[in-house]
């Protein structure tokens, strides 16, 4: 009897697809209402900022560099992500208890689902076709590192951390600060470090 095959690690497509389902779940909770609606909206802004920053700074550039013609696939996704940020900002301005919030949320939900479907049906298959399983698994690890830059929740006493204010304020500012944090991290990763073994 042979040894069992090693369990497949999630690759970057698996991780991003799971995140799409989580974001859709948060939107559904928002649509259902409830006393925790403001907290759910805050979590949606947080999770979407983390997810889109990782895609914008890691996944989309990788696809563009490696796949001929991928710019025609990636650019519309970036435009959709920009629109999602603007829609979230509009929802923030309306307020979760505002009379126009529900209709605007329903419109946002449709656009977000369409965006996720385009990534899953068009862009992600390009990644799977172009890269080895090992490369996609390594991208998942990089994605996890990038997403770990964000605090899991805003915290009133996080003033000593570099990202203390990433998730406070209007959504557009939240997205900008998360993207800047990821850009700084990636820039620092490219800098020559100290010799191995040095403290």
From TrEMBL:
InterPro entries: Hemerythrin-like (IPR012312). Residues 12-127 form the Hemerythrin-like domain. This is Hemerythrin domain-containing protein.
């Amino acid at each position: 009897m042979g040894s069992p095959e090693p369990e497949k690690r999630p690759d970057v497509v698996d991780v991003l697809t799971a995140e799409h389902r989580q974001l859709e779940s948060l939107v559904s909770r928002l649509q259902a209402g409830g006393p925790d609606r403001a907290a759910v909206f805050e979590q949606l802004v947080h999770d979407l900022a983390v997810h889109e920053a990782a895609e914008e700074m890691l996944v989309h550039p990788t696809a563009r560099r490696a796949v001929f013609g991928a710019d025609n696939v990636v650019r519309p996704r970036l435009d959709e992500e920009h629109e999602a940020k603007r829609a979230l900002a509009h929802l923030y301005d309306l307020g979760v208890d505002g009379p126009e919030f529900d209709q605007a949320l329903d419109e946002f939900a449709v656009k977000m689902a369409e965006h996720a479907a385009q990534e899953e049906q068009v862009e992600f298959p390009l990644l799977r076709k172009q890269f080895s399983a090992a490369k996609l698994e390594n991208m998942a690890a990089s994605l996890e590192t990038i997403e770990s830059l964000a605090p899991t929740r805003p915290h009133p006493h996080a003033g000593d951390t570099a990202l203390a204010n990433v998730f406070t304020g209007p959504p557009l500012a939240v997205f900008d600060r998360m993207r800047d944090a990821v850009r700084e991290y990636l820039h620092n990763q490219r800098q020559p470090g100290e010799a191995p073994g040095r403290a």
